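Posting here for the record, re: zinc ion.
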Amino acid sequence: MSSTSQCRVCGGTVNEFFDFGRQPLSDAFLEPDADLDGEFFFRLATGLCADCTMVQLMEEVPRDRMFHEAYPYHSSGSAYMRSHFEGLAKRLLTTELTGDDPFVVEAGCNDGVMLRTLAESGVRHLGVEPSGGVADVAAAKGIRVRKSFFEESTAREIRAADGPADVIYAANTLCHIPYIGSILTGVRALLAPTGVFVFEDPYLGDIVERASFDQIYDEHFFFFTARSVQEMAQRHDLELVDVERLPVHGGEVRYTLAIAGARTPTPAVADLLAEERARGLADRATLDGFGERVLRIRDDLTALLRRLRAEGKRVVGYGATAKSATVTNFCGIGPDLVSTVVDTTRAKQNRLTPGAHIPVVDAAAFADPYPDYALLFAWNHADEIQAKEQGFRAAGGRWIRYVPEVRID
Ligand SMILES: [Zn+2]
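Prediction output follows.
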């Protein structure tokens, strides 16, 4: 593993530390009769920038292949996530949006789950969303939506048309974007002098702690830390002024940036930076240790699934998540080990999972009859799912988890 690439943040040298091998697009579900020879694959590998410490993918997938008309992920799909975004919107109303005629821009507004609360409160807003299907859902909720990617030119056009933004927000969007420098230049241009750019994304500290390697897939290009975000912000006349750890999507951090010098950083910033230093999050040895744990999980999980197959047990996957593409393809889990994957998303049903080609069926089929074991791909929603599927345990079914280690619940 001596591969290097050029850092998308600072231009420095990125040294590869883990190779997941050949991977499909995580949302490229196939028709059962599709021509499997035409399936798109790329090499999924992660590296650490020797200069700015940003962890990033070694290879980029063209964005139009990922965020298109039929992009299947809807942020409103989970009650827990709906409440998460409503909570943030209500907080912004009392902390940031108290001035005269405030203006909020959300980059990657998805189906409008966060902006809806602000729109209903009469706040001037604009959602920017490149995936047409979810953008239409947002517009149907009464949200003002612009169907495009958010980049520097977009930000300048918005500023010219609507004036400066008091809040720019992005959830699970910024880490998707390799051309991140253009985003931050745009943010700097669009922000009001005392405005904030708030974004939340999976946190490298949680990924390393939980060995949650399935957070690494085509759409997640960057894996942020407070340190790498701080260094990135400084390159664009911005400053990291607050951080907040979030218990969503397997562990995220909400970062708040302001124009450099405009606000005093909260103590939480220094605390998280110190914690990251103590944990060695920017050290190659720490990331190599993560890689060793990932290999152990792969070996343990495939050994368990082969044993269950030998015992004649039926195992299904629960949640045809984007994350599951990395698990199935990296571990070599196909329909011989996991017969089907259940999922509530209609667009995924009656299709095959990308790369591994496991049939996806309606979640209603889960209980008809219950399998012996369910491999919990949607582990970030474990509490919500296990509460909903109490009948499975009552019928003797067992959950298989694989992070931070393989275990049967
Ligand atoms: Zn760098």
